[in-house]
Design goal:
There is one protein chain. With about 1450 residues, the chain is mainly alpha-helical. The chain is about 60% helix and about 0% strand. It is built from 65 helices and seven strands. Strands 1-4-3 form a three-stranded antiparallel sheet, with no helix packed on it. Strands 2-5 form a two-stranded antiparallel sheet. A two-stranded antiparallel ribbon has the order 6-7. A hairpin with a 5-residue loop joins strand 3 and strand 4. The protein is elongated and about 160 Å long. The termini are far apart.
Length: about 1450
């Protein structure tokens, strides 16, 4: 390979080459005359016993190696070479007679022929050359130089070469490029100061034995020091290897070339001078190598020079000359070859840039336009700061400025100017990257224009530059840079040129988006982008002079933003220009003294730009740059108003926080040739957003400003998307961390309105995303520090440790980054943890409690509001966390809250949407805790949404009374609201008509008192409050009846219009009256007073409460039932009603006097109210303003309790009353019977006992009277007699009762409803007197049951409790088969049928044949009854009756 490109002809002598090398190589000039050289020799495996080769090598002295350069010393015998044995590789083990003594072995050449042996007549085939021939030089340890062609063989299989037979010993040495340096090379001495990378290939090579052997005698071995000898050998080996690798760079295998270059670079890091010397010698000795080979050598040389810590001046000059010669050389590789040579020059610049700069300046100032490679080098020097040491870059820039000043003269040279413009407009190889020479040329051009004094020349050149193409981005950036540099000294002229260019026709076309007719118009399409970039460069280069021009520049930027054809190019140019302008403003200390009027318009443009960004992609740093610009603009004067600031926050937060997951963002870039790093891009964008928030708070360090910032983050903290919550909580925590450690807030201000923030972060502490959990807890910790610092604002600020990054792993090592904004969990050093503060070591619930201790009442209310709002979330975790937060806050600080009405109303609204049972229970428990100290407010609030009452509201009421003391208080408050009963003013009042409804809370309280009677939480409280509730409900009933009274319209008031139909006193719907009545019923039934309830239900007395006229009668019947049933609450009710007799409301006094007059018949009354006290009370009521109360008081005073003489008088009147039963006038008879009932009631059990039997017999005689009224009155009288005789054991009366049971039972089917009602009530009273069991079931059956099952139950009760009267009952039933009333006859047949079924034997014995025939006839008729059940029953009874009749008597 080398023979084809790199060697000279064979006619060149070795002496010429040596002298040339000595003249070019600075290291060779320093060598001594006895410097030894060696040539690479292939090893061949030794073969024992082979003859010694002859003629294959020639032994020369040290002076003979260079073609006669020196002579061998006198008397020195030439060494004999022989191939070493395996033992020779390890050193000799014995003398010449030893079997291990090395012997000569011939070596095969590359053609497989044997090398000639010693003694052969064949001389060397040719005279050895210094380099490049097939053979190589060999030097033994005595300095003898030999030539052997076999050493030129290629291939690694030849491992052993020739050794000198006289030297006897072999040592492993290194050979380099056919030359051996001096025994102690300078490069080896410098090894300790070189950069030695950890190269595995190098370590591998050191582990294997060397492949080149050099022999030396024992004398020479003794002459050399062991250390110097080892260094000499290593250098020789490295030089030989390097030489071979340089030669192999001419290969064509890419992988092999890559490996060789890597090995040479690795060697250069260890011994750069040695490699430099080898490369230099190789280039000098092989001037005709190919351009491609030399191109690769340049790359290697560049790397070697860069690897050197220092470069000798001789090397600098030598390689700089080499680079300069090749930089401008034209080859088939074109610019690539020139750039490689230029890179060598740049590598030299790292050691001595001033010397290179001097040469460059000389070349540039020749008057001829510089060659491209010179501009390339200067471009790299200008753009790459790594070339210079600290402080040297400024020196280069100063020298470049001086060069520009000296080059001003060339602007007026047409040829030079044209070539400059041609170079600037030359198309780039790739339009995405600009070559360094062209980038430098724009800078150079700008500096020249900056140094030019003639403004006309400057304007001419700038306009000429602007008239070039603006199609490519790098071209636009270069033009803008040139303009900016010129503006540093010619700001006015540059502004004028840009204004003139902006008004030119091509720019107008591009602004108005005219259709492009041809490809040439593309050069003007993005001209406005160039103008924008030029304005930015002007601001950067003009520095402090730019401040007065800022508004003008901003106005032009805004103009081009709005009127240019919008695309990605314009957007990036606009952002770049604004960034440069903002940076220039920030670098000027005097910027704070200016007010920039165009900032607001620019912010509007930036918001438009952010809104136009795709919401589902993040491919460019546009968002980051825009937010960064906004952060800096907000620092300028005048300050932003609240509306503008709010718009900016909303826009920026939405643009960043609403982005999809990072995995989704990466999918949008999968088709990009060079996809951006989405994670890095997003992190930078988030950091910019943090800086924006911090910038706002730094400009206005107040709590109001903090509240504004946080209020824009709250919606994102409550987002249903995990990535949005994670981003929002990250921003919030970063802001709190900044405030906590910068102490930016004004300590004089109250830190308020943070309750909502505490609530939001507290809820997020239970987020399923662990990153959100940890970030929220950290935020709460910093918030706690802020609160403590603000609380102790009078004390010196305590320096707290800066927070460390939150550990992204849990205790068990599970990753916490699971919301998509981190593709993988970042490394977690063990020291990454929370700040060392006690608050950061607590769990979330404890942290929240600690923070709550520093909150005011208003902030605690805000916290609770936040928790209540969280209950309405769609996220299960948020609902659960909100419920926990609500419960914790109220448990800890519920007593501090002042107003809870709205909170209770909000909880009710949210409770409707809560679907998690645990969360709902906690919310209800919070109500229970809150009711301990806020019962009245909650009751009043709950009343507002309790009409109509839904299930959620009812659960709130139950929670309100979950604790027994509170349930009593709830009832008390409801009773208080129940007393709010305003009446519409009547004609007697003369007041104006009210416009509102009559106290809806009073009606709602009535409704709730009804509902709560069925709640187990209020069961005990209702029982305890029975007296109050009874009086309140009776009074409420009267109140609702008063609302229904028709009223005459009020007389019109002069000057006032009559009210419209919708403005009068609204009529309360009937449901309110029925609710009050139902509440009264439920009070009796749920508190164990079902017997009193049964009395009114069976009598149908509830209808008496429907009108004011019958209302007193209804109250009297209820009270009478309590007396007759010996109610245990009579004493409590009496104690409660006595104060009501003094009430201001007439209805309360009326109810109290009605109850009191009936209670006078109860002996229990005297235990509470003695006879004299009762007399006084009644006497006082005679003076009551209400006529009704006075009348009732008078009736009470007529009670037999106060007039014992009335007892005998009334008893004497009973016989005449009984005679009146037989009057013909039905009405008279009914009234007489009613009078007897009243007398029995007034006399009581003891006084009426003597006449009871007569009354019973006379009453029973009218049970089957044909007149409906008399039947009903008789049955009622019998029932009143039974009630009056209750507790009195009268056998005669009991017989009458037994005999009346079947008639009463059958009259349950009477056609007259009045008779049915009285029959039910009397039957129930008789059952009580007879002490029947299951009286409550009997009452329910009588009151509400219908059908055969009810009749069967009643028959069972009668026959079970009256077995002795079986015959009487059967006989009575048989007699009713003759009744003319179909329903009674049917009921009698059913009664007999049941009897036959269960007592067939007894019936067969008692029934006559006539009765049997009657039964057959009756059942035959019943088979045609319209009721299916009766028809079936009759059919079965006929069959059974036939069987009974067939039995023998």
């Amino acid at each position: 390979m080398d023979g084809q490109h790199s060697e000279k002809s064979q006619s060149d002598t070795t002496a010429d080459r040596t002298s040339s090398a000595m003249s070019q190589n600075p290291r060779a000039a320093q060598r001594q005359a006895g410097t030894q050289r060696t040539v690479v020799q292939r090893r061949a495996h030794p073969e024992e016993g082979t003859p010694r080769p002859s003629g294959s090598s020639t032994c020369l002295g040290p002076g003979e190696a260079g073609g006669g350069a020196g002579q061998r010393p006198a008397g020195a015998l030439p060494c004999q070479l022989r191939p070493p044995t395996q033992g020779a590789l390890r050193g000799p083990q014995g003398g010449p007679g030893s079997p291990d003594y090395p012997r000569r072995v011939p070596v095969q050449d590359s053609q497989g022929s044997r090398a000639p042996t010693r003694g052969s007549s064949q001389p060397p085939s040719e005279k050895p050359r210094f380099l490049g021939a097939a053979g190589k030089w060999l030097v033994c340890a005595r300095g003898r130089v030999f030539w052997d062609r076999s050493l030129g063989l290629s291939g690694s299989r030849h491992r052993v070469g020739w050794v000198c037979e006289d030297c006897m010993e072999c040592d492993e040495v290194g050979l380099e490029g056919g030359r051996i340096s001096s025994p102690i090379s300078r490069s080896m001495k410098d090894l300790s100061c070189m950069k030695v990378p950890q190269d595995p290939a190098y370590r591998d090579r050191q582990a294997h034995p060397t492949t080149i052997l050099l022999c030396k005698s024992r004398s020479s071995q003794a002459a050399l020091m062991p250390k110097e000898h080892k260094m000499f050998m290593e250098e020789a080996y490295n030089a030989a290897i390097c030489f071979k690798m340089l030669r192999d760079l001419n290969g064509s295998d890419p992988l092999h070339l890559k490996y060789i270059i890597k090995k040479i670079k690795g060697m250069a890091y260890r011994a750069p001078n040695l490699v430099l010397e080898t490369i230099h010698d190789y280039l000098v000795d092989n001037p005709e190598i190919s351009s491609r080979h030399k191109f690769r050598l340049f790359h290697v040389l560049e790397a070697v020079i860069e690897a050197s810590n220092s470069l000798e001046e001789a090397w600098q000059k030598s390689f700089m000359q080499l680079a300069l010669e090749n930089m401008t050389k034209s080859t088939e590789l074109e610019e690539v070859y020139q750039d490689a040579a230029s890179d060598v020059l740049l590598a030299i610049c790292r050691h001595s840039w001033r010397m290179v700069a001097q040469h460059l300046e000389t070349e540039v100032l020749t008057g001829v336009f510089p060659h491209r490679s010179l501009l390339y080098v200067m471009g790299i020097l200008t753009s790459n700061e790594a070339i210079f040491n600290e402080g040297e870059k400024a020196c280069w820039e100063e020298q470049l400025a001086q060069l520009a000043v000296k080059s001003v003269q060339f602007l007026n040279t047409d040829v030079w100017s044209k070539e400059l413009l041609l170079a600037l407009t030359k198309p780039d190889r790739t339009h995405q990257e600009q070559p360094p020479e062209k980038a430098f040329l724009f800078i150079y051009y700008g500096l020249i224009l900056q140094a030019e004094d003639n403004s006309t020349t400057v304007r001419t050149h700038l306009r000429t530059l602007l008239d070039t193409s603006h199609q490519w981005p790098k071209q636009r950036e270069g033009i803008a840079l040139t303009i900016g540099l010129a503006a540093a000294r010619h700001l006015d002229h540059v502004w004028a040129v840009l204004e003139q260019f902006g008004r030119s026709t091509p720019i107008k076309w591009s602004l108005h988006s005219f259709c492009l007719k041809n490809a040439e118009d593309l050069q003007w399409k993005w001209a406005s982008s160039t103008i924008l970039l030029s304005y930015g460069q002007m601001a950067v280069r003009a520095k402090a002079h730019i401040l007065p021009w800022v508004d003008n520049i901003l106005s032009r930027m805004v103009f081009y933003f709005h009127y240019s054809s919008w695309d990605e190019t314009l957007k990036q140019s606009f952002l770049s220009a604004v960034l440069m302008l903002v940076g220039a403003i920030n670098r000027n200390e005097g910027a704070h003294s200016y007010e920039f009027s165009q900032v607001s318009e620019l912010l509007d443009c930036l918001m438009v730009l952010m809104e136009k960004e795709p919401r589902d992609t993040l491919c460019t740093p546009t968002r980051q740059q825009t937010i960064h610009i906004i952060s800096n603009l907000c620092k300028l004067r005048p300050p932003l108003d609240l509306e503008k600031k709010s718009q900016l926050l909303s826009t920026c937060l939405h643009s960043v926080l609403a982005l999809p997951l990072l995995d989704v963002l990466e999918k949008h870039t999968c088709l990009f040739l060079e996809p951006p790093n989405i994670q890095t891009l997003y992190n930078k964008t988030s950091s910019a957003l943090d800086q924006l928030l911090q910038s706002f708070i730094m400009q206005s360090p107040t709590t109001d400003e903090l509240h504004l910032l946080l209020s824009h983050l709250y919606p994102w903290l409550a987002s249903e998307k995990a990535q949005e919550r994670q981003r929002a909580v990250g921003r919030s925590t970063a802001l709190l961390r900044f405030l906590s450690h910068s102490h930016s807030l004004d300590p004089k201000e109250d830190f308020r309105r943070i309750g909502q923030l505490v609530g939001m972060l507290g809820i997020l502490c239970q987020d399923p995303d662990r990153a959100i959990q940890h970030s929220s807890m950290e935020g709460l910790g910093h918030l706690y520090q802020l609160l403590t610092n603000q609380t102790a604002r009078a004390a010196p600020m305590v320096n707290t440790q800066a927070p460390k990054q939150l550990s992204p792993a849990t205790v068990d090592g599970a990753p916490i980054w699971n919301s998509g904004d981190q593709k993988t969990a970042p490394p977690t050093p063990p020291e990454m943890t929370f700040p060392k503060d006690r608050i950061f070591q607590l769990d979330s619930s404890q942290v929240i409690k600690e923070v709550m201790k520093h909150l005011t009442k208003a902030e605690l209310t805000d916290l609770i509001w936040t928790a209540i709002e969280g209950l309405g979330s769609a996220s299960p975790f948020r609902i659960q966390a909100a419920a926990d937060m609500l419960l914790t806050t109220i448990r800890e600080h519920g007593a501090k809250l002042e107003t809870v009405a709205n909170l209770g109303r909000a909880i009710h609204l949210q409770l409707c949407s809560v679907r998690i049972p645990q969360a709902k229970e906690k919310a209800l428990h919070a109500i229970t805790l809150l009711a301990r100290t806020h019962t009245p407010e909650l009751v009043a609030t709950f009343l507002d949404f309790s009409i109509p009452l839904d299930s959620h509201a009812f659960r709130l009421w139950r929670a309100l009374g979950a604790e027994q003391p509170v349930s009593r208080q709830v009832l008390a408050v409801l009773l208080t609201w129940l007393q709010e009963r305003p009446l519409p003013p009547g004609p007697r009042d003369g007041g104006p008509q009210p416009k509102d409804k009559p106290c809806p809370r009073s009606l709602a309280a009535m409704n709730m008192l009804h509902e709560l009677q069925f709640a187990r939480e209020f069961k005990k409280a209702v029982q305890e409050a029975f007296p109050q509730l009874l009086l309140a409900l009776l009074t409420q009933l009267h109140y609702t009846l008063e609302l229904h009274l028709p009223r005459e319209p009020d007389p019109p008031i002069p000057g006032q219009q009559a009210p419209s139909p919708g403005q009068g006193w609204p009529v309360t719907p009937p449901s309110h009256c029925s609710t009050s009545l139902e509440a009264l019923k439920s009070l009796l039934s749920t508190t164990g007073h079902w017997q009193d309830f049964a009395h009114l239900e069976l009598q149908g007395a509830w209808k008496l409460f429907s009108t004011l006229d019958t209302y007193p009668q209804g109250v009297s019947l209820l009270t009478r039932a309590m007396v007759q049933n010996h109610c245990k609450q009579i004493k409590a009710v009496t104690s409660q009603l006595l104060p009501n007799l003094q009430s201001k409301e007439a209805r309360e006094r009326k109810v109290a006097i009605l109850i009191l007059t009936e209670f006078l018949y109860s002996p229990t009354l005297l235990e509470v109210l003695p006879r004299q006290a009762a007399l006084i009370v009644l006497a006082r009521s005679l003076r009551d303003p209400s006529p009704e109360v006075r009348v009732l008081s008078l009736q009470g005073l007529g009670n037999i309790l106060f007039h014992p003489e009335k007892e005998s008088l009334l008893r004497r009147q009973l016989p005449p009353f009984l005679d009146g039963f037989f009057q013909n006038n039905e009405q008279v008879v009914v009234q007489v019977m009613g009078t007897v009932s009243d007398v029995l009631h007034r006399l009581g059990a003891h006084s009426a006992a003597a006449q009871s039997l007569g009354v019973a017999i006379n009453a029973r005689s009218f049970f089957d009277d044909e007149r409906d009224g008399i039947r009903a009155a008789a049955i009622a009288l019998f029932g009143d007699l039974v009630a009056a005789m209750a507790g009195k054991e009268l056998s005669s009366l009991r017989t009458q009762v037994h005999q009346s049971m079947v008639p009463l039972l059958l009259h349950l089917k009477d056609h007259c409803p009045g008779v049915v009602t009285q029959a039910k009530f009397t039957l129930y009273r008789c059952a009580v007197l007879l002490h029947w069991r299951l009286r409550h079931t009997l009452f329910c059956t009588l009151a509400w049951e219908r059908g055969l099952s009810a009749r069967h139950f009643l028959w069972t009760c009668l026959m079970t409790h009256s077995q002795e009267e079986f015959g009487i009952h059967l006989a009575q039933a048989l007699s009713y088969l003759h009744s003319r009333h179909r329903h009674i006859k049917t009921w009698a047949a059913l009664f007999i049928g049941y009897t036959i079924c269960y007592h067939p034997q007894a019936v067969s014995q008692m029934v006559s044949s006539l009765d049997t025939n009657l039964l057959f006839s009756t059942f035959e008729d019943l088979k045609k009854d319209p009721e299916p059940g009766i028809r079936v029953f009759a059919t079965r009874q006929l069959c059974f009756l036939q069987k009974v009749a067939a039995r023998p008597q």
